[in-house]
Amino acid sequence: MAPLDSTPVRVAPLPADLAHLWLDPAVHTYITAMHYPRGSETHRLPLWRDHIARPGWSAYGAFTTVSALDSLRPAYSRLRVRAPLAVSEREILIGVAYGYRGAPDQWWNRQLYSGLLRAGTGPADAREFMRDYFELTELHVHPAGQGRGVGERLLTALLADRPEQKVLLSTPEVHGEDNRAWSLYRRLGFVDVLRHFTFAGDSRPFAFLGRPLPLDDHRR
Fold first, then answer.
1. Residue 66 — pLDDT band, cuts 50, 70, 90?
2. Are 162 and 134 in contact (CB under 8 A)?
3. Is residue 148 included in any domain, yes or no?
């Protein structure tokens, strides 16, 4: 797919009650950005639907308009959203970010808690650290839209006005932290919480990162 270098990008909320309009292209964007095999959507769609119902859930999408010729390409058509989310019939979704309020009964929360204990944090300190946070669950930009600051716009929109004390996330470890995701998180002030953690069912090492909220001071 050709890069969308010059087309303007619009960032807007993705309402839960309109998930039937944006969920398929959002999951397709995620699968493509993560280089997962086609067919992975089947397993991810139910999970994302479950997350939408969690307390404090919020999501934003990044949209852009393609030419009439590009809109005929199958790869772009997979990213197309339907009215009333799209402002034109050629607008497509190229980025998605969502998260929700963390809670002890969530799988991700239990994974981080167990990792902190194994790293030597006491149970009381681990519970206090995880008492009030927003989990940044997913942040993905389609390869055709990367390198244009779309991820930062999505993240700052998602974290604006959050009531939690902090935001936490997990991301795959990368040698030298040398990719766009790590660069974005470090630029916005995220620091290490736990490194080289292996989730159950995934052999890749992950890092947990976090920072206080609000995000307003990230450029100071």
1. confident
2. yes
3. yes
193: in domain: yes
Q: Which residue's entry shows tokens 């069912």?
A: 201
Of the candidates 77, 29, 23, 76, the one whose C-alpha atom is nearest the C-alpha of residue 45 is 23
pLDDT at 195: 97
The CATH number of residue 86's host domain is 3.40.630.30
> Percentages helix, strand, coil for the chain, rounded to the nearest 5?
35, 25, 40
Identify whether 185 is a catalytic site residue. Answer: yes
Residue 26 belongs to some domain of the structure = yes
Q: Which of 30, 76, 100, 185 is catalytic?
A: 185
Can you list the alpha helix ranges (DSSP code H) found in 119-195?
A: 123-129, 150-159, 180-187
The predicted pLDDT at position 5 comes to 65
SS3 state of residue 126: helix
C-beta of residue 116 within 8 angstroms of C-beta of residue 131: no
Amino acid identity for residue 30 in this structure: Y
Considering the domain boundaries, does residue 1 fall inside one?
A: no
Number of folded domains in the chain? 1
Cβ-based neighbours of 130, under 8 Å, separated by 6 or more: 102, 104, 109, 112, 113, 116, 168
Task: Provide the residue type at 132 as one letter.
Answer: D
Instruction: Note down the domain range covering 107.
Output: 9-212
Answer yes or no: are the C-beta atoms of 134 and 100 closer than 8 Å. Answer: yes
Q: Which residue has the tokens 């916005």?
A: 188
